């Protein structure tokens, strides 16, 4: 769909430049104060020999009185959103047939607002932004960034959104309204000359009817004449008069839209052809489809498992198309466990130096048995068995934080499995149905998740074995190092109270120093 989308703050004038052709004026869009457009209006203009309008929700009914068209837009808006300023993303589809229009599609969107009023939800700003994004992100539409002249252009929400979705400015046209309402002595000359915040396609100024003009039934022809007079008589805009006003905006839009369609048509054609080939291939596969065909069930199940495996791998590796900006997930959480939580658990290990000294003393005494220790101050050697026993006991303390790390990783893997099953394990499009109907061909989500969880839990046993093997290897390495170390490296000098067997385990000064 090629078309034009106006963006702007909450003000009705943003819609008027699109719908006031000078050759044949029809005024049928609702106007008023506050937020008037509360649902997207998709307006399709169709060149035809007769003039009438049709609504998608009123099939078969033709509107020849455009005042009734306005009333129907208001009534259909209130039917879905209520009468107290509520909004809805559900569009109103209107098609206008006339010999005085071009074949194109226009989308009138709600103006951007920040403070909720009436029945509007607290997150009105984000809801309207999401609604706008559904349209302006499409590459085949032009964006009209509508901004009032009596506000700071640097704070324009319309320009901000336009630059986000169209950073190169290929699809954005700036429209400046309310030029006649600026403070005396000020003007928007720098903006209209594209010197301040320049756009690739520049800015066009327009002067719309005021609410007083509308209430006074001032017709569009008179309004266009007044607009022309304003630009010709204003000293700051006189030299730009031929490039300002609603008629010039229409001319530019028609030209730019034609050029834009010409530029995007080849890519659109290729995309449609690719989709057509894909659909034809899928139709061919399902031509002889039988729900009870075992081969079809097997193929569908394999597709589910393969898609689940792809989704799981993407979440673990962080290569998915959806990035969580609120918290860590998937592989990032597992990475944090290894690099932050596991070192923290090691540091948190309790180490009682007093108890360690006591154990060393008892181990040495027990190794000596009834053998008498020589006099005080005599240098001795640490018995290999005592040394090895003490070190092995310390090494085994590492096992507990390792197992805790394994449990945390398993929990994260199960959480990732749950996220993948919520997305849906890759059911083929032609087989999807409500949850209650997935009894013959597909495994229900809960059963699928439980099965995968069971398989993930099986990873715990080899992980624990791996931890035990690492501890054993560390112990063996220590044994080899103690065997190869020179005897002088294991020499101990004992306090006389230790050598005389008077160690009571409570004196911190009774220490053994290893050289």
Strand content: 5-15%
Coarse shape? elongated
SSE string, helices as H and strands as E:
EEEHEEHEHEHEHHHHHHEHHHHEHE
The percentage helix is: 40-55%
Strand line-up of the largest beta sheet: 3-4-2-5-1-6-7-8
Counting DSSP E segments of at least 2 residues, the number of strands comes to: 11
Largest beta sheet, briefly? Answer: 8 strands, mixed
Enzyme class: hydrolase
Domain Dynamin-type G: 1-266
GO cellular component, one term: cytoplasm
Family: Belongs to the TRAFAC class dynamin-like GTPase superfamily. Dynamin/Fzo/YdjA family.
Keywords:
three-stranded antiparallel β-sheet; elongated; alpha/beta; eight-stranded mixed β-sheet; 515 residues
């Amino acid at each position: 769909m090629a078309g034009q989308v106006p963006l702007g703050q909450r003000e009705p004038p943003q819609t008027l430049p699109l719908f006031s052709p000078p050759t044949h004026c029809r005024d049928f869009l609702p106007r008023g104060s506050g937020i008037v457009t509360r649902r997207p209006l998709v307006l399709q203009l169709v060149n035809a020999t007769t003039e009438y309008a049709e609504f998608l929700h009123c099939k078969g009914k033709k509107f020849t009185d455009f005042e009734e068209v306005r009333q129907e837009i208001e009534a259909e808006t209130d039917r879905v959103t209520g009468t107290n300023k509520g909004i809805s993303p559900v569009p109103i589809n209107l098609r206008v047939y006339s010999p005085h229009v071009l074949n194109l599609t226009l989308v009138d969107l709600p103006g951007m607002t920040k403070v909720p009023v009436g029945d509007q939800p607290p997150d009105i700003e984000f809801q309207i932004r999401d609604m706008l994004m559904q349209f302006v992100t499409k590459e085949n539409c032009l964006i009209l960034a509508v901004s009032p002249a009596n506000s700071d252009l640097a704070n324009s929400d319309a320009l901000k959104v336009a630059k986000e979705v169209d950073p190169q400015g290929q699809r954005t046209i700036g429209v400046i309204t309310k030029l006649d309402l600026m403070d005396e002595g000020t003007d928007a000359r720098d903006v209209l000359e594209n010197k301040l915040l320049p756009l690739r396609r520049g800015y066009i100024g327009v002067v719309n009817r005021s609410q007083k003009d509308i209430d006074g039934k001032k017709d569009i022809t008179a309004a266009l004449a007044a607009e022309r007079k304003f630009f010709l008589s204003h000293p700051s805009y006189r030299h730009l008069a031929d490039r300002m006003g609603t008629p010039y905006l229409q001319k530019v839009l028609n030209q730019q839209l034609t050029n834009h369609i010409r530029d995007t048509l080849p890519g659109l054609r290729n995309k449609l052809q690719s989709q057509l080939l894909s659909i034809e291939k899928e139709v061919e596969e399902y031509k002889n489809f039988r729900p009870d065909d075992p081969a079809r069930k097997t193929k569908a199940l394999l597709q589910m498992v393969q898609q689940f495996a792809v989704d799981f791998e993407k979440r673990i590796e962080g290569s998915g198309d959806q990035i969580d900006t609120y918290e860590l997930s998937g592989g990032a959480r597992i990475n944090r466990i290894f690099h932050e939580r596991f070192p923290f658990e090691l540091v948190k290990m309790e180490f009682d130096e007093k108890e360690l000294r006591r154990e060393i003393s008892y181990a040495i005494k027990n190794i000596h048995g009834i053998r008498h220790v020589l006099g005080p101050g005599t240098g001795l050697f640490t018995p290999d068995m005592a040394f090895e026993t003490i070190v092995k006991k310390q090494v085994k303390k590492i096992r507990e934080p390792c197992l805790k790390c394994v449990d945390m990783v398993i929990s994260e893997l199960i959480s990732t499995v749950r996220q993948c099953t919520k997305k849906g394990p890759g059911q083929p499009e032609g087989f999807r149905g409500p949850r209650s109907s997935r009894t013959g061909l597909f495994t229900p989500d809960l059963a699928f998740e439980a099965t995968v969880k069971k398989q993930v839990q099986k990873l715990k046993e080899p992980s624990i074995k791996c931890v035990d093997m690492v501890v054993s290897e560390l112990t063996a390495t220590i044994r080899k190092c103690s065997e190869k170390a020179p005897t002088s490296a294991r020499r101990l000098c004992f306090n006389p109270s230790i050598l005389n067997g008077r160690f009571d385990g409570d004196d911190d000064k009774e220490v053994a120093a290893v050289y």
